[in-house]
Every structure is written in structure tokens, then in C-alpha cells.
Amino acid sequence: MSSSTKTDGVEVSVVLPIFRTAEFLEELHARLTATLEGEGRSFELVMVDDGSPDGAWRILTDLAARDPRVRALRLSRNFGQHPAIAAGFEHARGQRIVLMDADLQDRPEDIPRLLAALGDEVDVVYTVKQGEEEPLLTRLTSNLYHYTFSRITGARVPRSVGTFRAFTRSFLEAIRSYPEHNVLYGPLMFHIGFGSATIEVPHVPRKGGRSAYTFRKRLSLAVSSLLAYTDLPHRFLVSFGGLILGGSALYAVALLVRYIVSRGALPQGLTLLALLVTISIGSTMMALGVLGTYVFRVYSEVLHRPRYVVARRLNVSMGTPG
Length: 322
Fold this sequence. Notes:
Layout: E1 12-18, H1 25-39, E2 43-49, H2 56-66, E3 70-75, H3 81-91, E4 96-99, H4 111-117, E5 124-130, H5 136-153, E6 161-168, H6 169-176, H7 185-192, E7 196-202, H8 215-229, H9 232-262, H10 270-303, E8 310-314
Parallel strand pairs: 1-2, 1-4, 2-3, 5-7
Antiparallel strand pairs: 3-8, 4-6, 5-6
């Protein structure tokens, strides 16, 4: 059996990207093992150290020495959350896969509810955080993004949907069949389809430290996902360019009519010229910027560089993907 489908009898794989969460790892491991042992399922914890600078690898080394179910990867540098998730997905062997954050805001005790919701008609279970108290700006921008993404892609994205989710092996294989390297797994999962369900989970405040997802990173992720899964930007530019052209034509007609009817003087001077030049240059620069973004994404895919590089492995054989 190929390495992409081999499960080795593992029922559940929990994939955890690790970055600046070293202080939570001991408690996270204890709660995960207690929960999954209570379920009576065979499981593995696929923990991916995404170049975390806070000593996470030292703790993972200790956990892997004590528990062979901890399968840890250390990437050669910080590649970002989604490449780290890709590494976890490509090393997961379970028939059921759980993706969650490692900062304990996703409760390990909720995993049985997610697994129970998977069934013949449900291949992926998403979670929505209940009672979440985030800053107003974060809530507004998050809701706006999910609404916009839903409208322009036709995918139904629940508001306040979290990273925490569970899915079947067949859904994972569908994810892995997408060849692009600059992948964003949140939008991709909704784009793929399959039968899905959504359950509410309690929102747990972060115990310490601060989230690596700043407003700037959230905005960058939103822009990247819209560029990757829609043709909205260039359609907007075509419409915007047409609007400017139409407005300019109407303005020219209005000036001509005014000149013919009232014999008034045509506008002269640098004011009108500067306005027309500014509109022209601004429209051109916007168009070139959007086209440049698409060209860069194509260029990145053509290079076909690896999404991540594994520097160290614990309880993971060299023959495993990645």
C-alpha cells in the first residue's frame, strides 16, 4: 500500500501546527491522550514545529520519548501555518483526522463530539465558537470576510468558523489531490465540497501569550484566499475601467453640448489635465498591481518549490511523505 493511504491501524490522527505554544504542550498532550484513550480509539498526535522560537522542540522531544504516539516534525524554519498543516496532513495515517490549534483554545474534550458527527453522509465537521469575545474590529472583519467569500464563491461558510475540525480519510485524500503549493486549507475545504456538518463548541480564552494571527496577517490571509478562489479582482477592474471610460465619454459629451448651446468656453488649464492624468495613472497602477499579483502566484507555482522542509523527525520514518 502506498504511503499516501497507509494507515497502520491508526483510527484517529490529530494534526497540530506548533508555533509559540511551548507553554501549552504538556497540558495539551495530557488532555489529548486522556480524551482519546477514554474513547478507546487508536490514535497518533502529529505535532509540527513550524520553527517555533520558544523551545517547543525540546518539549516535543521529551513527549515523543515518553509516548510513541507522538509523531513530531521540526521544519527547517518558520514556513507559516498552512505549510505546517500540509506537513501534518502528509504524515497523518488515521482513518479520521482532527485539525486543531495548539494553544488550548480548541478543547481536546470536544474531539469525541466531532468524531461522532462524522458519518456516511458527513465527511467533514466544522466548529463554530460559541460565546466568543473577540475585539469588535476582529469580529466585524471576520464576519465581512466570511460573508464576502460565501457570496462570491457560492460556498456556505459559517460565521465564526474555527480551525478546529474533523474529517474522513477520503476527504483528506481529496485535499491532497490539489497540486497547488500556495494552498490555504480553510477556503480549500469549503471549495472541495463533500457532505458537512457544523457544531458549536465553547470559546476558551487564551491562557497566556498572544496569538500569532495579528490583524495584518488576517488581512493578508483574506486577500490571498480571495485571489486564489475567485476571479473577482480582475472582474472588478474591467467594470471599474468601463465605468471610468463611460464617465469620461459622458463628461466629454456634456462639455460639447454646453459649448454648442451656451457658447461657453471649454475647461482649460492644469486642473482638468491633472485630474484626467491622475485618474488614468491610478487606474493603470491598480490594474498592473492586480495582474502582478496573479503573475507572481503563477511564477511561484511554476518554481514548484517544496511547501516545507523537514529538519528533524521523532517517531516518523524517513519513508513517510514530506
